[in-house]
Amino acid sequence: MDEEQKIKEKISKLDQLDPQKLIPPMFANIPEIAGQVKVVARKSDGNIDYIITDAGQMSRRQIRNSFTYFNDEELDEYPELSIDENNYARPLAYGNIREISPDILFSGMFETNPALRGKGMGVAFQEHLVNLAKKLGYKFLAGYQNNAEIARFFIKRGRYLLEEIKDELQGEFESIRDQENDETLFYTVKFLNPEDVTRYIKPERIDTSVEDKIRFKEEIT
Description:
Elements: H1 3-15, E1 38-44, E2 47-59, H2 60-66, E3 87-101, E4 104-112, H3 121-136, E5 140-145, H4 148-155, E6 160-161, H5 174-177, E7 186-191, H6 196-200, H7 210-220
Parallel strand pairs: 4-5
Antiparallel strand pairs: 1-2, 2-3, 3-4, 5-7, 6-7
Helix pairs in contact: 4-7
InterPro entries: Acyl_CoA_acyltransferase
């Protein structure tokens, strides 16, 4: 097998994904979402940057003042979001996913519109992403969180810390740390095949509570 074929196989799973399929079906049941939901995306080399929008509108200033990480200048990279000189399609959420190994789908930055938080969008999206990753054939869904509060959200939904993985198997997950080498971050992994939990996780760390995991991480950092 030549190198070009190896590269094609490496990124082929994520290349199969139509970005419109990133929209969780549950979004249809959230009354605060207005009209048709769409995804504007950029795909390249096993990477998808995406913005999920609805029929609502926001000005550039509103976007700048609302989001923590989504820089309004990024709007210039997505001209299809422009409605007129002053208004843009309302971003519901934006983020990034990328394949970092044939088995690992990495969910990078993800932020929902602050005005719509608490409506179930974040939960619906993360559950939907788990299902998509399974269908695409990945074994693990991974990411990192900047603080304990955000990490709790993911740990409550079944993720384990990288530090809970058996020492002899840590090498299989080095590509996760390579995304952002900072030991103060919470690197977390969702095992998409339940039987892999006992294979990879240290026995004493299986089924520990969310708060126990947070303390465990803080004690070793």
